[in-house]
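User: Here's a protein and a ligand (nicotinamide-adenine-dinucleotide). What would the complex look like?
Assistant: Let me lay out the input and then the predicted complex.
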Amino acid sequence: MIDYGLKDRVIFITGGGSGIGRAIALLAARGGARVAVADAVAERATQVAAELRDLGMQAMGELLDVRDSQTCDNVVARVEEQLGPLDGMVACAGISPPSAATDMGDETWSRCLDVNLTGMFRSIRPVGQRMVQRKRGAIVTISSVDGLGGHAGRAHYSASKHGVIGLTRALAIEWGRHGVRVNSVAPGVVDTPLLRANIPPDHLQYAMLDRIPMGRLARAEEQAGPTLFLLSDAASYLTGSVMTVDGGTSAGYFTRWNGADLGSRALLEAGAYGEPQ
Ligand SMILES: NC(=O)c1ccc[n+]([C@@H]2O[C@H](COP(=O)([O-])OP(=O)(O)OC[C@H]3O[C@@H](n4cnc5c(N)ncnc54)[C@H](O)[C@@H]3O)[C@@H](O)[C@H]2O)c1
């Protein structure tokens, strides 16, 4: 197992009860970190914290809806009381309900922005206040490749994730002199409950897998390593950066199987570009 040098570090993860957040929590705990998992679904947070304790690590699970500032402040205070001063935070809580822009009501738009962007700020603020005061700490936001480009049926989500990248860069600039680093991991398509709930299987196959040069979805664990790297001392001079972890999806225009331009799917199927891997 790769050692990210996070033994005994205290790490707080929002949205840690499922998918990518849970994978980050598990990898951090396996590396010896003390982890606080916060999630809007209490049982998820409790369940993941129990998994971490089964690994022999100190861990806590907290109910936290990032839409509530007061709860964010209270949970961060409780985490520091129980586990010690925070060394790292991963802001991972997010939702991605599909909706065509023409049909999208205010409520759908606002909820997505409220959780993914404003909620992220609410949860980072009490952590940043403490880290800035202590002059040390690292924060990783989980954005998305949808924060770098648009996505049909996801106007609200794309807007929120572009906002997350803007937030990451602004905080990096504001807190850099105070010893606090802020970076973002921008996942591509990751096989998690969120993805399975929101993407029909045929869309997954044709619209998504086609566009991933590596020809497969990411496993949640594959987002965890890059996240822990950004939290670690190996990334001591990285701040304000956005690391795409997307199997090559955002690398260029022709990001499809074997680099093929599938304006001509028929050519691919006829074997013109070789067999898809
Ligand atoms: N799965 C993907 O393909 C993918 C791609 C790019 C980015 N992301 C981002 O990664 C993050 C995690 O996604 P995932 O795929 O692991 O999803 P997931 O649904 O498996 O996990 C998200 C967790 O966030 C929690 N959550 C939702 N709203 C919350 C709130 N208001 N307060 C606190 N917690 C809340 C959920 O309860 C859930 O446990 C999200 O920010 C998502 O936008 C995912």
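Summary: Residues 14-15, 17-21, 39-41, 44, 64-67, 92-96, 115, 119, 142, 144, 187, 189-190, 192-195 surround nicotinamide-adenine-dinucleotide (CB under 6 Å).
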